[in-house]
Amino acid sequence: MTGRRGKDIVAGIDPARDWHLPLAWAADEAHRRRLSLRMVAVAPQHDTHHVDDITGPVDLRRAGADRLEQARNWVRDRHPEVDVTGDLLHGFPAPVLGRVAKEARLVVLGSRHLSRTAEFFSAGSVVVPVSAQASCPVVVVGDAEHISQQPPYVVVGLDGSASATAALAFAFDEADLRGAALRVVCVRQPPLFMSNDEEVALRAQRALLSEATAGLSDKYPDVHVTHEAMTGHPVEELARAAEHALALVVGRRGRGGYTGMRLGSVVHGLLHRAHCPVITVPSE
User: Fold this and answer.
1) Would you say the C-alpha torsion 84, 251, 268, 254 has a positive or negative sign?
2) How far apart are CA 240 and CA 248, in angstroms?
3) Of 90, 197, 250, 267, which sits 20 to 30 A from 277 (CA to CA)?
4) Is 250 within 8 Å of 164 (Cβ atoms)?
5) Contact indicator for 49, 57 with CB cutoff of 8 Å
6) What pLDDT sits at residue 228?
């Protein structure tokens, strides 16, 4: 597994939302990787300057504790051999989970598919800030993985950046664990003006794909790999390629073509557009 080594997988539990889908992903991954699972719910710290508001925070803390107990029992029924713990922490969800991520191997979050504006300004938003700041891979589960697709496959976006290289290594490992194929996709945005160098650009994409996967294909001989060089908008093309995938893996904080905003404009777009779990991987 790529990235900084942590001792467990962390699953964020939102007491106000259904937690079954992201927790199922986290529990299954802990089972596959033989890791422990730490569930984290975040309740607001009571502000003593607003005594009249005590009912809200107290109820939220009680709900968080109840959800953790329910979730713990649910995981034990699903995977009895997985060591699962639950922590109710206090504060604002995004910074708390960001701190927890420093000690994690992987963080799993649920997504409400908020609009970009709501994602940035909602008080309960955690997906964008945690995905942008975590030093380990972050999985955002907004829709179920497509386990009925045969053969199963994982998609990874490649753009030549350091974070995309880390994402590629993670994707190979994930595909190998799942017995899935791997589709390595490089998307080139079309030029503003027509050019006679389209064939040159296509050859460059193919060379990038071949060079990036060569060593990893030797390391994971059981993973069937396909290379796909495309022209179009990266968000649309990657989302389309991953329409029936187990997961879509992309890098973040890189300096290649999939950067833009702090999180990365393509990564940010995929968190809203892709209909499968999205795994964002930081550079080493």
Assistant:
1) positive
2) 11
3) 90
4) yes
5) no
6) 94
